[in-house]
Amino acid sequence: MIRKRLPKKTKSAVSKQALKPFDATQLIDIDRLSHEGDGIGFSQGYTVTVPFSLPGETILIKHPKYDERSVLAVIDKIEKVSDKRIEPACEYFAQCGGCDLQHVDYQEQIELKQSQFLWQFKDLLYQDLKGKKKSKIEKPLLSEPFEYRHRIRLSVNDGKIGFKQAGSNNVIQVDSCLITHPLLQAKLSVSQDDVVTQLHSLQSVEWLIDDNEQIAIRLILKKMPNATKLAQLSEYLAEHEVHNIRVEGGSEIWQNSENLTQKIEYLTYQYRPGQFTQVNTSVNQKMIAQAQRWILDSVGKNEAKLNQALDLFCGMGNFTLMLAKHFKHTIGMEGAKESIQCALQNTKENQKQSEPDKKSELNELTFLKQDLFDPSWHERLGFKTFDLVVLDPPRAGAKQICSDIDKIDCDYLLYISCNQATLKRDAQLLKRKNFVIERAGIMDMFAQTHHIETMVLFKKK
User: Fold this and answer.
1) What are the CA-CA distances from residue 351 to residues 125, 268, 275, 357, 390 (Å)?
2) How confident is the model over 396-407, as pLDDT tens digits?
3) Would residue 31 count as lying in a domain?
C-alpha cells in the first residue's frame, strides 16, 4: 500500500467558505505532476494528489485521505490512460520507495521533469520589459535509463536488509535493482547473509563501485562490533571478492579500504567509502563539462574576469579542480573534515599528473573547513571579491549563504541543486539581492525517479 503525507495546504480558487464534503465517486482529471512526481488534479474545490497517475489521465480513486482543501488518494481504476504510460520493468515497482516513474517512457520522463522545472520557476526566469533579454533554458542532460547508479544504500529493519518501502520505514528485500550498476546488483545477496544481518545495531549498508570497477562496502552501526565480529565479517566479504571495507560504529571507524577512483576528462579524483560522490558518474561528467562551458561563455568572455572563484560545499573538489584550471585563485569551502583532506590529496595528485603535459595544470588553490550553515561562514575569507561563486549544497539548500551573499562581492553565481523546493526558495532570496537567472537547465541524475538535479547561472544586475 502506498503511504504518503497529505500535501501542504495550497490556495484554492474557491472562496474561504466551507467546502462541501468531497465526493470520492467522481472521476479525477490529472492536470500535472507535483514536485514529488505524483499526479495532481482539481475537483470540487479540492487539490487531489494521486501517486502513479499521469497528466491527461482520468482516474477513479479510492481510500481518500482529507485535509482542509487537499485529498490524497490511490488509483482504483484508470478510465482514460495516457499514451505515455508503459509497463514498469522492475518487479518491485510501487512497493520499493526508490523509483516512482518507471511507468513512464524515459523520454517522457525528461519532458515531464522539464515541464515541472519551467512551471516551478516561471516567475523567476528573467525577461526584460521589451522581451529581448531572457533566461536561456538549456536542453536537459540525459542519463542511461538503467544501470547508472554507482552507489546504493540499503536500510535495515527487523532483521531485513533492503530498500525502504514507499512512504514507510518497512524494508523490502530485493534480489535486483535495475537502476544499479550490474556488478553491484550481483552483491545484493551478499548483504542478506547472517554474517551481515546479525551484526548488532546495524543501521544501513552502502555498496559502491568506482570507475575501475573496484567494489567497496560501508556498514553503519550504532556501536562498533568487537574484533571477532570484524574478523568474521572481513573473512566473509573476502570470500565474495570484497576487500574494500569501512565500518562505522557510533563515533568509531574501522576500515580496511583503499582509495576509489573517479575520472573526469583530464582530472582524477580519489575518495574513500563514506565520502560524498554523485551516484551517476556519467551525468556528473556531463554536469562538470556544462558548468565549464557556461563559465567560459559568460564569466570568461573577459579573460581578466577569470581571476578569483569561490566553491562552497566543495566536497572532494568535484567542481573546485575544474575551476582551478581556469581561475588564477580558487577557494573551496566545506564542512566535512574528511572531504577537505580528500580535496587536498586530489589537488596534490592532479598537480603531479599535470607536470609532463600541462593538460591538467592547476592554478593557486586553497581549501578551508567551514560550517556553511553558520552565519559567520564568510568571515574566514582573506578577500571577498569573486568573479564567480559556485554553490552545490545538500538538499537543505543554502539559505544562510543566499541571505548573506551581499557580504561578499560577486558578479556570477552558479547554483547546482538536487532539491527544487530549496532552490526556488534560495533563488527568491538571490532575486532580492539583484541577481537574475541568465541560464538554467536540468540534469537527469536520478533516472526513473521524480528527483531533478538543476543547474542555474545567476548574474548580478
Assistant:
1) 39, 10, 22, 11, 22
2) 999 999 999 999
3) yes
